[in-house]
């Protein structure tokens, strides 16, 4: 399939993220620090996986509100994770 032929894959914690990880595609998962959706629980498996978490304090996450803090992970950080 498409994922198997990819040189890299970036996604939130979804099925395709986990598929790319077990296919040993270079995989970067984007996560919120909010529990229970943090990478400690949902990190993809595989030898070429990496998880990025928005590492600033997020009041919306702390208040258990809907939050889009993963959109604030710098693109450069994601790009560098793919290259590492």
Summarize the structure.
The chain is of the alpha/beta class. The chain has 5 helices and 3 strands; from the N terminus they run αβαβαβαα. Strand 1, helix 2 and strand 2 form a beta-alpha-beta unit.
Description of the structure:
There is one protein chain. The chain is α/β, with parallel strands linked by helices and 84 residues long. It has one domain (2-83). The protein is 35% helix and 17% strand. The protein has 5 helices and 3 strands, in the order H-E-H-E-H-E-H-H. Strands 1-2-3 form a 3-stranded parallel β-sheet, with helices on both faces. It is globular. It starts with a helix and ends with a helix. The model has no long low-confidence stretch (mean pLDDT 86).
Summary tags:
84 residues; alpha/beta; three-stranded parallel beta sheet; 35% helix; globular
**Tally of distinct domains:** 1
Query: Structural class given helices, strands, pairing?
Result: alpha/beta
Share in β-strands: 15-25%
Topology as a string of helices (H) and strands (E): HEHEHEHH
Which residues form runs of ≥5 with pLDDT under 50?
Answer: none
Oligomer state equals single chain
For the largest sheet, list the strands in their spatial order.
1-2-3
Count of beta strands: 3
Percent in helix? 25-40%
CA-to-CA gap between the ends?
24 Å
> Could you tell me the mean pLDDT?
86
Helices, by number, come to 5
Cα shape: globular
The radius of gyration is 13 Å
